[in-house]
Amino acid sequence: MKEYTDLKDHHQVKLKELNKKYNIISLLRFVMFISFMFFVYKFIEKNGVVLATYAVVSLALFLVLMRIHSNVSTRRKIRKQLIAINEDEIIYLKGDKIPFENGIEYSNSKHLNSFDLDVFGDESLFQNMNRTSTHIGKEKLSELLQNKLEEHEILENQEVIKELSGKTKWRQYLSALAKISGDNSENYNKLISWSETSQKGYNKVMLYIFYLLPAMFVVSMTMYMIIGGKIFVQIFVPVLIINLFLIISQFSKINKEITGSSKISKIIKYYSIIIAKIESEKFESSKLIKLQEELKVKTQKANVHIKKLSSLFSNLESIQNGMVAIIFNGTVLYHIHALTAILKWKKEHSKDMKRWLSIIGEVEALSSLANFSANNPDFTFPKLNSNLNIKIEGLGHPLISKAKRVCSDVSFNDNNFIILTGSNMSGKSTFLRSLGVNMILTGIGAPICSSKADIHPLNVIVSMRQSDSLSDGESYFFAEVKRLKQIMDSLDSERCFVLLDEIFRGTNSDDKQTGTIEVIKKIIGKNAIGAIATHDLEVCDTTNDYPDKLINKCFEVEIIDDELHFDYKLRDGICKNKSATFIIKKMGII
Q: Which is higher by pLDDT, 155 or 482?
């Protein structure tokens, strides 16, 4: 937390300096504007080269100050965002709240683990990890959390996360740029749709005419100003009228390119700055270096092309300013040439756009994982193996605070499955979720809540939380059966890590016990690795028939001084103590 506090203080000092500079420049800019207007007035009143020179110099200084003012304004916005970013991290680490998007839109009850393990939604894994500020970054992080990577990709991500976790300032600067860009799903989709929509350009004859007419206007106007003569007026006036008719005839074509493009040029501008920061940073991990290489187009970097697109969009959008459109198009067909340039850009780079933005999203997603790693320095990056062995020392749930977290050692060998027993509230479900979430983190290259781990990454399949699907006309029981069918089908094609919590809760006790035992037999017959939690102690007898594949583990509860005492420690064997009746009596129900 000290790092975030120090960074916040640093940015606040810099913001104060920028505020002073901003106010001074604003005042000077106002003075230069008044000076310009004064000298123009005096020039009209008295004429004279000196007054004209003063007016020109005042205007030039005003324009320079406008540019500096814009630059300082942007820097102020970035500093404000950097302060807010560090404030959010401080709030988060204090445990006051989680001030980040929860990704509830990605929640899917049909996914084989994300719904049951609270990957999305309030206080979810996604919300705790998410530091993305672009739409595509959020998409990439959600995809990452729902799909296990190949072993070489996991190792690449581990390398990236280790490197980026030490680049806090760089990560936060990228996030600040994305936040002030105004990026969102609507504008992102508009941009992608624009890049993928083609429009026919002009043939060579038309292009020749578009260059010839402005040249005729400029030459005839210049000659008229130098030597006078009606003949030049008879040239540039008709050309002016023809140019205006031409721009009117092409307005629908121009409007097609800018329809719905509000704010897009601003977002593209910040995309170019973000990409420039990615391109210019010195990386050591192979994946980040590869992503940098993918941003190159022949000899030029992607940020150059995107910056140019931002400028082209701004040029084309200026047609909406009536006076500017009349003057610039009547003289040089400005917006037709701007349209030609943007169509040429699209033809050359539209296929690259989605890839460039995808790289921004990927870097943002990896930065989120790096931030998670930096916030949890005691977490470990598991070693990987391909021997179907899973050994985790000090396993805990990564979203439970360190002060409250109780950790356990657990291991699975090939064909190893745990039957877990324990009374209500003893910690069974939390333990299963700890296993599942840490296996997910292992599968994407993130550090896990453990002191030491050696893991064979496997796809995680879970049945822990099934709800009635009234819209589908499904009962709790049928929803649960469908999930178990999904699990069995998945196990037919690959080895998986399976977690089951009190299955068949929607049926009678005899069916529940028999069904649970048969499911366990079927699962171990398909060589699954994992655990099942149950209250039926008779289910534990199944280990006698499969001593090489099944292991009994438990969580115990003690009654001390007429109070329940849970230590949440994983033990060998079958639980002996029960708490349900005691709790019911304690509450005065019976």
A: 155
